[in-house]
């Protein structure tokens, strides 16, 4: 079964954009129809990001440094991670429901429509309630950047803009990559979550707090060190205690492009080899 994005006529022109806008509009109207419930969801979704920040504050209640980083320096790491993950979760996070779509046969229905399968899945259940979490993550990042005593230069201003965007692309790629496993193993949800949410937790702290093979695998084997740790070092003007050169702090966009390319290839291969569940 081929992906619907392989150039059906409607997907090549303005008709596709109108169809995507219609899907997004329908989602927005349906989720906002019950305003009280929607507002409660908005407020409740801030909780996960708040706990990330509170956890760091609690840790610094009993210590002055964490992995060689002060509280204000660590908040830059937390801000980059929270902003990037929360925004990616808003835009792409619902792809983690792919195992359910495959199991119930909904993915079969998506494939026969003359639109790209991935955009359909993202728009047909876009969790607008998570908008508050993304806004809070951005607020944490702005506060951290403003209070860390950064010696601002044009280059660091550019990095402060590019690094969160690269983090969004990286986490979005992780969401898609881990979801594609369900094309081969439908019950892979827990494994995917361990990488996706484990990666979020990993990037919320300086990688110097981890050690051995665990740090080597997540930080450099999977690239999570370039989401928040190395950009934070470059913004703060600090040398890497682990010995990587200063340019590593500027590698986040390149790592994000590699992750996005890998996710796109994995998605195309997964869809091409997908076999219906027959439901």
Report what the structure shows.
The protein has 279 residues and is an all-alpha fold. It is built from 14 helices and no strands. The protein has helices at 9-12, 14-32, 35-44, 47-59, 71-92, 98-104, 106-111, 117-124, 131-147, 154-180, 189-202, 212-221, 229-236, 252-272. Helix 10 (154-180) packs antiparallel against helix 11 (189-202). The longest helix is centred in the middle third of the chain and has 27 residues, at 154-180. The chain is globular. The model has no long low-confidence stretch (mean pLDDT 87).
Summarize the structure.
With about 280 residues, this protein is mostly helical. It has 14 helices and no strands.
Q: How much of the polypeptide forms β-strand, as a percent range? A: under 5%
The major beta sheet can be summarized as: none
What does the overall shape look like? globular
Uncertain stretches: none
- Find the structural class using helix and strand composition: mainly alpha
What's the N-to-C terminus distance? 15 Å
Order of helices and strands: HHHHHHHHHHHHHH
Mean pLDDT equals 87
Radius of gyration: 20 Å
Number of strands: 0
Helical segment count: 14
Helix content: 55-70%
Pfam families: ABC2_membrane_6
Transmembrane segments: 42-62, 74-95, 134-152, 158-186, 207-227, 247-267
Keywords: Membrane, Transmembrane, Transmembrane helix
Protein name: ABC-2 type transport system permease protein
Explain the layout of strands and helices:
Layout lengths: L8 H4 L1 H19 L2 H10 L2 H13 L11 H22 L5 H7 L1 H6 L5 H8 L6 H17 L6 H27 L8 H14 L9 H10 L7 H8 L15 H21 L7
Helix pairs in contact: 2-8, 4-5, 4-9, 5-9, 5-10, 5-13, 10-11, 10-14
InterPro entries: ABC-2_transporter-like
Protein name: ABC-2 type transport system permease protein
Keywords: Membrane, Transmembrane, Transmembrane helix
């Amino acid at each position: 079964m081929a992906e619907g994005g392989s150039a059906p006529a409607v997907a090549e022109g303005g008709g596709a954009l109108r169809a995507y806008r219609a899907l997004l509009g329908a989602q927005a109207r349906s989720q906002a129809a019950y305003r009280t419930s929607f507002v409660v969801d908005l407020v409740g979704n801030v909780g996960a990001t708040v706990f990330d920040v509170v956890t760091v504050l609690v840790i610094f209640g009993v210590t002055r440094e964490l992995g060689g980083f002060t509280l204000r320096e660590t908040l830059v790491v937390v801000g980059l991670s929270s902003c990037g993950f929360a925004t990616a979760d808003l835009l792409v996070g619902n792809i983690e429901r792919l195992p359910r779509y495959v199991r119930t046969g909904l993915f079969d229905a998506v494939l026969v429509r003359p639109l790209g399968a991935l955009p359909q899945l993202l728009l047909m259940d876009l969790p607008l309630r998570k908008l508050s979490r993304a806004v809070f993550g951005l607020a944490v990042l702005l506060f951290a950047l403003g209070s860390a005593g950064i010696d601002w230069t044009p280059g660091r201003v550019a990095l402060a803009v590019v690094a969160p965007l690269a983090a969004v692309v990286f986490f979005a790629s992780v969401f898609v990559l881990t979801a594609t496993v369900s094309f081969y193993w439908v019950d892979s949800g827990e494994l995917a979550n361990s990488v996706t949410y484990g990666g979020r937790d990993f990037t919320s702290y300086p990688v110097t707090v981890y050690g051995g093979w665990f740090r080597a695998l997540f930080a450099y084997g999977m690239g999570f060190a370039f989401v928040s740790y190395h950009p934070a070092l470059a913004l703060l003007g600090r040398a890497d205690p682990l010995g990587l050169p200063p340019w590593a702090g500027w590698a986040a966009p390149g790592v994000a492009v590699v992750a996005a390319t890998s996710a796109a290839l994995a998605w195309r291969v997964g869809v091409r080899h997908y076999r219906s569940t027959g439901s």
